[in-house]
Design a protein that fits this description.
The complex is a heterodimer of chains A (283) and B (780). By secondary structure, chain A is mainly β. Chain A has a domain at 130-226 and 275-280: Sandwich (Immunoglobulin-like), CATH 2.60.40. Chain A is built from three helices and 18 strands. In chain A, the strands form three sheets. A nine-stranded mixed beta sheet of chain A has the order 16-9-8-5-6-7-3-2-17, with no helix packed on it. In chain A, strands 12, 13, 14, 15 and 18 form a five-stranded antiparallel beta sheet that branches. In chain A, strands 10-11 form a two-stranded antiparallel ribbon. Chain A is globular. Chain A starts with a helix and ends with a strand. With 780 residues, chain B is mainly β. Chain B has two domains: 2-113, Carboxypeptidase-like, regulatory domain (Immunoglobulin-like), CATH 2.60.40.1120; 125-779, Beta Barrel (Maltoporin, Chain A). Chain B has a 22-stranded antiparallel barrel. In chain B, strands 9-16-17-12-13 form a five-stranded mixed beta sheet. Chain B is globular. Classes of the chains: A mainly beta (283), B mainly beta (780). Chains A and B meet through α1, β1, β2, β4 and α3 of A and β24, β26, β27, β44 and β45 of B. β1 of chain A pairs antiparallel with β50 (755-765) of chain B, so a sheet runs across the interface.
Chain lengths: 283, 780
């Protein structure tokens, strides 16, 4: 809601307001270890990526991988899943470990490096099924707009993360982070309804560059826990925090902890059920 | 409990209350041209070397032994009036003073010595009259008193267009903004570019930053007391203006000649009409405008009874092509009854109603969302002034306020399925008793001391929420909720608030002043953004949010030069703030039933030195103010529990205002401001998570950097139009931000829109260019 108002206000102030890219001096800071561990039940390799942070204004795009000794996940049934190093900083498990698991199973991920141990926990959360993806030509935009048809699972409090891939490439626009609380947002009562317009349409399309014939669109719905919902919502806020009505920037909160031999890392661990659908735009 | 409090208050009244065989001289001091009361006019009895000051209604009273006296009535900008008379019994003297500017051309007139700033016990206070305010270059040519207040020492703002003002390192919601005694919860139009006060309807403005008398309470930082004009009791007059973004008109005149008068004033902006051709396509069909309407009437029922009725209604409307609508505004109504019981006892009974509300409406095809919120306050406030002796005046009174908070009611419509959601209303009852004594101990020592006892009760009907403690900065888990029936207390807070101000005059042109005040505040605006927005919701102190407390100490040296032509002062202050509200990371502040789980309670401190030089008379007038200040907060869970600068902290604050009268017809004015950049939190590193580049701040720091300094020059020229018999007019040409500096409001950090893997810093300036304006003002 803040954002809609901010957009309008900036529209108003655009008569006089201006934004310029400027150089800012910030001190060199300590390197953070980032553990990116979003695991799904999809039948594909599951990857944990570990890398290091870089200076905010370092635009080389190189986030140095961080080599660790081992990456191990365990569940409440006593199973252990060993992730193998496939590249420096990239640890893979094949096939998906979660194939046969019940919902709400409990997982612990441990990452070992020398004496340092990083730990996080997660519960497997349910997703919801996708009825279909459809598309329609929009003359004004000169392209196709894709709509998702799916319904929130019955029961209040489901959280989802919807990931859109355009021709196999994940749409990583920070403004397109697509999260849902039931079929809408936390302030609404939207249990077991169809996903609302912003989630089902706005966030899976790039209106400035609408889909064209021949393009493939894939949407995944990941069931996530409330903490990860908060994480993504915070990440989105922090990547786009600006303007007159911005709250103070803060760090996105990780669910990892570190033992006495390491500093708390950044990143997140969540185990999710995933449902997906794909469509190709044809004439 | 109650009895002991009353006892304490009574203790404040000096023991020597016993009556003496004295007579009293009392009456009203007014402006001869229109019959408006002159507030704080000085009445001086030469033989006794004693004096009195008129109150907010222009009333004064002095008790003296029988005898022959020379009474001198004076007021800045007016000619003195001297009355020599024998007084053998209680006497009423009504005085009308003639404004200097009304004297015939050619006569050499200079206002008499006005050493009030040196002699009065008031310190850390700024008085402004509309005549001065109107001469200062204004944004878009529209005179605005809050923007002038922002140029006073100790007052800052977070930036251009931000609502409200920060006084001595306190937040915006810690100012009590009074319009004819009724609190105004949001003093801004168009976010913060203009204030809600129509300059044509305002008589007098006073900002009290320290040494706050016990008469006032309820906020920590300051009192901005705005008094509306009473209206001309002699003849009908109109004033108005046509400006770049809005027009205004006011009409005043007698209801019954010399007995009662009225004023009505209205404004409407038309920025949307003018902006239309420049709007981006998607914003066509947008509307944003505001209007306000101010009215006041007063009537002398008889010599000793007078009633006033004032009202304000203002609204900002902001909408986009029928998709989005947003409007907000204040309403206040004040009813006052002045009664002169006898020559010694003056009373005023005030009843007021004040409301702030907003509405949002979003529609998209068949779906939509709407949301409303408001705060309402009903207050009854009897005040008495007892003129015991010329050197001893006792003010006492009470205040009882009932608050109704509506944090939010909303409806969501998803394809025809409507669900509504309302947060419980919250109710509170705030009461206060006070005694405030103005005591002249000796020729050199003046005291004003008092005690206020405030008692706040957060009451049902509603739901009380109880939370468990947890690690600071983590949402507190809910322990239980409890339904509470009507008027049942959920939480109550009582505070004794001692106040003291002392002035020691060293000689007739210099003095040393010191003051202490303790203030309590029981409601706050929940706002976590750089500039507060109209959506911010007011919330009472509850079982989870304790009442806020501030202690302030101030010391000052005041000296006037060249027969009071120059007024200078230096003040230092230290303030400690307790129970300050902060927010957890990612706090959810709107429409959140469990809001209090997202709040943190911390403390603050603010200190500084203020330097002020002001020239009242001559062709060149104006002031220079410089403040060196610091404001910090300490909150467990933020900045790893270490002190950090407040968002509105500015170390250096310089304001220069100059008004030069070239001829009788043409005057030029300019102001220059220079402020240290406000603190901001800058990320120091970034990491790649799921293809998102997320910023990271080392050590979870808060306000670890500062944005560049702010400075700006504004200029204006006022040209008087041809004087016709009944018609006076002037043209004001102004340029705001003359050298078009892009002063940053903030610097923020975002991925490059061309490549999300790259990040950059963006300077956001609300005004990036010089803004010229023309205004035509008239009065008849």
């Amino acid at each position: 809601m803040h954002r809609i108002i901010t957009v309008l206000i900036i529209g108003f102030f655009s008569l006089t307001a201006c934004e310029d890219v400027v150089e800012v001096d910030v001190n060199k800071s300590e390197t953070q270890i980032c553990i990116d561990a979003i695991i799904t039940n999809a039948k594909e390799p599951q990857v944990v990526r570990i890398s290091q942070s870089i200076a905010y204004f370092d635009n080389s795009g190189d986030f140095p991988p961080y080599a660790v000794d081992s990456v191990v996940m365990s569940d409440n049934l006593g199973n252990k899943y060993y992730f193998d190093k496939t590249q420096t900083g990239v640890y893979t498990y094949l096939p998906s470990p979660l194939d046969s698991l019940e919902q709400n199973s409990h997982f612990i991920l441990k990452v070992y490096k020398g004496q340092a141990v990083y730990t996080a926990q997660s519960t497997l959360m349910r997703s919801t099924s996708i009825d279909s993806l459809t598309y329609q030509y929009n003359e004004r935009m000169n392209g196709y707009i894709v709509s998702l048809h799916a319904r929130d699972a019955y029961g209040v409090g489901d959280c989802y993360w919807l990931r859109t891939y355009r021709n196999g490439v994940f749409m990583n626009h920070p403004g397109k982070i697509n999260i849902a609380y039931d079929a809408g947002y936390p302030q609404m009562f939207s249990d077991s309804l169809e996903f609302v317009f912003p989630i089902a349409i706005m966030q899976i399309n790039d209106f400035e560059k609408p889909y064209q014939i021949g393009e493939k669109v894939k949407v995944e719905i990941l069931g996530i826990n409330g903490d990860y919902y908060q994480y993504l919502s915070m990440a989105q806020q922090q990547m786009q925090n600006g303007g007159m009505f911005a709250p103070p920037p803060v760090n996105v909160r990780t669910n990892f902890t570190a033992n006495a031999h390491a500093l708390t890392p950044v990143g997140f661990f969540n185990v999710c059920e995933v449902q997906s659908a794909e469509i190709e735009i044809i004439k | 409990m109650f009895r002991s409090i009353v006892f304490l208050l009574v203790l404040c009244i000096p023991a020597a209350v016993a009556g003496q065989s004295k007579i009293s001289i009392s009456g009203y001091v007014k402006d001869s041209s229109n019959g408006e009361a002159l507030i704080a006019a000085y009445v001086y009895i030469e033989e006794l070397a004693q004096g009195a000051v008129t109150n907010s209604y222009g009333y004064y009273a002095v008790n003296v032994p029988q005898g022959r006296y020379t009474l001198r009535f004076s007021y800045i900008g007016y000619n003195d009036k001297v009355i020599v008379k024998s007084f053998n019994q209680n006497t009423t003297i009504q005085v009308e003073l003639v404004s200097v500017s009304k004297i015939l051309d050619g006569a050499e007139v200079r206002a008499k010595r006005k050493s009030e700033s040196v002699k009065s016990t008031e310190m850390s206070a700024v008085k402004l009259n509309m005549r001065t305010i109107k001469k200062i270059p204004a944004f878009l040519g529209e005179v605005d008193l809050v923007r002038v207040v922002q140029m006073m020492p100790g007052v800052t703002t977070v930036g251009e267009g931000a609502t409200g003002f920060n006084v001595r390192g306190s937040s915006v919601d810690q100012n009590l903004v009074l319009l004819d005694d009724a609190p105004v919860f949001n003093s801004a139009h168009l976010f913060g570019f203009f204030s809600v006060f129509n300059p044509d309807a305002v008589m007098d403005v006073k900002l009290i930053k320290g040494g706050i008398p016990a008469v006032y309470g309820g906020r920590l930082a300051s009192i901005l007391d705005v008094r509306m004009k009473e209206g001309n009791v002699k003849e009908y007059h109109g004033t108005g203006g046509v400006g770049a973004i809005f027009s205004r008109f006011a009409l005043e005149g007698p209801i019954v000649r010399n007995r009662g008068s009225f004023i009505v004033a209205g404004r409407r902006s038309y920025v949307d009409v003018l902006a239309k051709p420049f709007m981006r396509k998607e914003l066509k069909g947008s509307r944003f405008y505001y209007y306000d309407f101010t009215a006041k009437g007063n009537y002398f029922l008889n010599k000793n009874n007078r009633i006033f009725l004032s009202a304000y209604l203002g609204r900002d409307v902001f909408s986009a092509s029928n998709i989005f609508g947003f409007d907000w505004g204040n309403q206040t109504i004040t009813l006052r009854w002045n009664k002169v019981f006898n020559n010694r006892l003056f009373s005023n009974l005030t009843a007021f109603y004040s409301k702030y509300d907003y509405k949002i409406d979003v529609k998209m095809d068949e779906s939509g969302f709407d949301w409303k919120s408001n705060i309402i306050n009903y207050t009854l406030k009897p005040d008495f002034t007892y003129y015991l002796r010329p050197e001893l005046v006792v003010n006492f009174g009470a205040q009882s306020a009932f608050y109704n908070f509506v944090p939010g009611t909303s409806h969501t419509n998803i394809d025809g399925v409507v669900s509504s959601r309302s947060l419980d209303n919250r109710y509170a009852w705030e009461n206060a008793l006070y005694t405030d004594v103005e005591h002249k101990i000796s020729k050199n020592l003046n005291l004003r001391y008092g005690l206020r006892y405030s008692y706040f009760n957060y009451i049902g009907k509603g739901t009380a929420y109880y939370y468990r403690d947890t690690t600071a900065n983590i949402r507190k888990p809910l322990e239980k909720t409890e339904k509470v029936s009507w008027f049942k207390s959920i939480a109550a807070y009582g505070n004794l608030e001692p106040r003291l101000a002392a002035t020691y005059t060293l000689d007739s042109f210099s003095s040393i002043k010191l003051s202490y005040n303790r203030m309590a505040q029981y409601l706050q605006m929940i706002s976590n953004t750089a500039a507060s927005i109209p959506l911010d919701v007011w919330t009472p102190a509850t079982n989870n949010i304790p009442g806020q407390i501030a202690n302030q100490y101030a010391l000052g040296y005041f000296r006037n030069f060249q027969e009071d032509k120059w007024e200078t002062s230096v003040e230092v202050y230290y303030k400690s703030l307790h129970n300050q509200v902060e927010y957890i990371d990612n706090a959810d502040l709107l429409l959140n039933e469990f809001l209090e789980a997202d709040l943190l309670i911390g403390k603050g401190r603010a200190y500084g030195a203020e330097f002020f030089v002001r020239k009242h008379e001559g062709k060149l007038t104006g002031w220079l103010s410089y403040t060196l200040a610091r404001s910090e907060r300490l909150v467990e869970g933020i900045n790893r529990g270490k002190w950090y600068p407040a968002r509105f902290d500015r170390a250096h604050n310089l304001n220069l205002v100059l008004i030069y009268e070239i001829t009788k017809k043409i005057s030029v004015s300019g102001n220059f401001v220079y402020y240290t950049g406000t603190p901001a939190t800058f990320p120091t590193s970034k990491y790649n998570f799921q293809g998102y580049i997320i910023p990271h701040i080392e050590n979870d720091a808060r306000n670890n950097y500062r944005i560049p300094d702010y400075h700006r020059l504004d200029l204006s020229v006022t040209i008087q139009g041809k004087k016709r018999k009944k018609w006076e007019s002037n043209w004001v040409f102004s340029v705001y931000n003359v050298y078009a500096r892009r002063n940053p409001f903030s610097i923020y950090f975002q991925p490059n829109p061309e490549d999300y893997m790259q990040t950059q810093a963006i300077r956001f300036s609300v005004l990036g260019r010089a803004v010229p304006a023309i205004t035509y003002n008239f009065n008849f």
